[in-house]
Amino acid sequence: MIDKRFASARDAVADVHDGATVMIGGFGEAGSPIELIHALIDQGAKDLVVVSNNTGTGLVGLAALLRAGRVRKVVCSFPKTAGSTVFPDLYRAGKVELELVPQGTLAERIRAGGAGIAAFYTPTAAGTPLGEGKETRAFNGREHVLEHGLRADFTLIKGRVADTHGNVMYHRTARNFAPMMATASSCTIVQAAEVVPAGELDAEAVVTPGIFVDRVVHVAEPALESALNEAGASYP
Questions:
Q1: In this structure, are residues 201 and 167 in contact, taking their beta carbons and an 8 Å threshold?
Q2: Under a CB-based contact definition with an 8 Å cutoff, are residues 153 and 21 in contact?
Q3: 196: which strand partners?
Q4: What is the pLDDT of residues 164-196, one digit of tens each?
Q5: What is the DSSP letter of 143?
Q6: What distance in Å separates the CA atoms of residue 203 and residue 21, rounded to the nearest whole number?
């Protein structure tokens, strides 16, 4: 029997090393694994490369990880969103690097990494500053840009319910990038509001199969980024 449960978020991220590439799920606050991110802040790993859709808001979650000075580079689609001040300030000060990627391209780069596809061509960004310096090729008379698949050392994602074998279901749009990220990582860590014995989940409803998940942490009442920000919270 394979029981992938870890006692705490702290235990689950204990071996994240300096310089690691970490994928972090979330679309705004939807699916943001705040407890795992805060545990990573406490753990102390630095010089991280973070792959995420955005850069967090307020002073909690991903924004708090950035504010702590632990991130060397961000690969994302939306570095500046409503309520996002930490990353823009760090970027303007030259304290963090940015690789800006169109959202669909980011999703496909992650999917490709998980599928073992080294690179692919896409018309997105062709002829724009985001395509400068990249290999191009014409298909059917239209210019395409070569983009490389993305993989990570660790992935942090948030599920609604998981079983002890790591099978995961999500709450609606909270699934966003998580299923793809789970496939593109050497170690996928899931926090779930409910953890059930293996066999209790409807196999037809499982979104992320346990084969892609290495660690499961039970977080019964996960924090919401918006609620924390409304309360003026900061971490640590």
A1: yes
A2: yes
A3: 163
A4: 999 999 999 999 999 999 999 999 999 999 999
A5: E
A6: 31
- CA distances from residue 176 to 17, 27, 169, 181 in whole angstroms, order as listed: 26, 6, 12, 10
Q: How far is CA 85 from the centre of its chain?
A: 19
Residues 6+ apart with CB under 8 A from 163: 195, 196, 197, 198, 199, 200, 201, 210
Global pTM reads 0.96
Domains in the chain and their CATH numbers? 5-117+151-230 (3.40.1080.10)
Contact predicate 10/42, CB 8 Å: yes
Q: Which of 214, 182, 211, 216 is nearest to 196 (CA)?
A: 216
Give residue 175's identity as a one-letter amino acid code: R
Which tokens go with 203? 């196999």
Write phi, then psi, for 217 (nearest 5 degrees).
-120, 130
Distance CA 106, CA 215 (A): 24
How far apart are alpha carbons 111 and 103 in whole angstroms? 12
Q: Are the CB atoms for 190 and 216 separated by under 8 Å?
A: yes
DSSP 188-203: EEEEEEEEE-TT-S-G
Closest CA to 71 of 102, 37, 100: 37
DSSP single-letter state for residue 64? H
* pLDDT digits 0-9 by tens, 42-87: 999 999 999 999 999 999 999 999 999 999 999 999 999 888 899 9
